[in-house]
Amino acid sequence: MSDINVVLLTGNLTKDPELKYTPSGMAVCDYTIAVNGYKKDKAEGEKDPVSFVDCVSFNKQAEAISQYQKKGSMLTVSGELKQERWEKDGQKHSRIKIMVSRVKFSQKSKDTKVADKSDSAIPF
After folding, report:
1. What is the phi/psi pair of residue 115, to 5°?
2. Structural domains of the chain, count
């Protein structure tokens, strides 16, 4: 049996996506989604826990996310987890990102001009 590395999340963009291009011209879009958790025994005034998940998309998918989605937009992403590790000033750091292979725009952005693209899955 081989290892499985698959994740599927739905959440809202915490800020506008950041689109950049590599020196070779490949589009890379970094963004973070806030995913609400669920607390079964909520005391009065307590809120459901929120996880902030870093995501990265490439190529046409990256450009579409940057063009059609803004802070607050709801996305469903699937992909695999990738752990990044680095050392800075003698301190070891790490973070986990989702390398997105598929994304679905769950609600249309107010600025969306092409409805078909804003509400469809865009493959990696």
Report:
1. -60, -40
2. 1
CA distance 103 to 122: 6
Tokens 């509400």 belong to 119
Burial class (CB in 10 A: 0-12, 13-18, 19+), 116: exposed
The pTM score is: 0.78
96 domain-assigned: yes
Residue 83 lies in a domain: yes
**Where are the extended beta strands (E) located within the chain?**
7-13, 18-21, 27-36, 50-58, 74-88, 91-105, 121-123
Tell me, yes or no, whether 1 lies in a domain: no
Q: What is the domain-level CATH number for residue 115?
A: 2.40.50.140
What's the pLDDT tens digit per position in 86-109? 999 999 999 999 999 999 998 654
> With pLDDT > 90 as the criterion, what percentage of the chain qualifies?
71
pLDDT tens figures, 31-58: 999 998 877 666 666 777 899 999 999 9
Owning domain of residue 65: 7-38+46-119
